[in-house]
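[Meeting: bench + compute handoff]

Bench side (C.D.) handed over the final construct sequence. Compute side (W.E.) agreed to return the predicted structure before the next meeting so the bench team could plan truncations. Sequence as handed over:
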Amino acid sequence: MLDSHVIEAKFNCEVERVTKENEKFIVNTSCGSYEGKNIVIAVGRMGKPNKPSYEIPPSIRHIVNYNLDKCLNGESIMVVGGGDSAVEYACELSISNSVTLSYRGANLTRPNPTNIAMFEKYLSENKIQAKLNVDIENLENEKGKIRVNFNDGSFQDFDRVIYAIGGTTPVDFLKKCSVELDDRGEPVFDENYETKTKGMFIAGDIAFRSGGSIIIALNHGYIE
């Protein structure tokens, strides 16, 4: 769709705020303003990801990530989390990396049925490994690799660690877009994901307190 110019994309262009004037939305960005009849806000929660409670040593912070942006091929990677994003990350990365998924619970219960089935399939085929029912005590630098120390006394070394442990709603950004929030700071919308501002819609993870997945976001796009 990008190649055939069905979608006009603007990269490296940060949205600062969205206002509505005379039935048109004005999107103010770092590279100019744009107008639109309707607006879909699908920024997700990973812009402000949750971070672990323990300190991450400065010397390995460049290989501790919260998304897939910096991943390379041929790495040993541990994905931390038990939700849809963690499963999707682990399965996608396993195509060209050695991947272990770490989760403190004994079983994965949060992902949707499709992702649970995918996880179990990859696990049975040894495409990914699982470190379940154990917590992480801390991380340390082990000769340039990340040593992950678990609370059962075991440890493993990895080239990269990715945390997929959820995130928080970007409240300040939503306020700048005039999105009405409830008393918990979550966006208010109807059954069609339209906010109190007519013509402005919410899609993806920010529509759910527990987070979502790319599948949910795509479904929202179809509904809207």
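W.E. noted at the follow-up: The chain has two domains: 15-45+168-223, 58-163. C.D. will use this when planning the next construct.
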